């Protein structure tokens, strides 16, 4: 068939210098920009703009974070359903 070419761009992780663990994901073309990226962006965990530096993104951690986000949203949905059911039950008990 055809020769497989190396991807021109790759995903990188911009990690907060504040040490909160918050990060942004960005796409970078290493042929065009060989230096490490640094941006001053907003970190909501410290509620201010801080320096974000480039770190490699592992494929495993990317899929793990996606599954974690899914499980977190599913847990939030279940908690909302349970809380509404509890509220309804408490209202019924107050009426009686």
From TrEMBL:
Similarity annotation: Belongs to the bacterial ribosomal protein bL33 family.
Keyword Ribosomal protein: yes
Domain of life: Eukaryota
Keywords associated with the record: Ribonucleoprotein, Ribosomal protein
DNA-binding found in the keyword field: no
Entries under InterPro entries matching the protein: Ribosomal_bL33, Ribosomal_bL33_CS, Ribosomal_bL33_sf, Ribosomal_zn-bd
Protein name per Swiss-Prot or TrEMBL: Large ribosomal subunit protein bL33c
HAMAP family listed in its UniProt record: Ribosomal_bL33
GO cellular component terms, A-Z: cytoplasm; ribonucleoprotein complex; ribosome
Gene3D superfamilies, per database record: Ribosomal protein L33 (2.20.28.120)
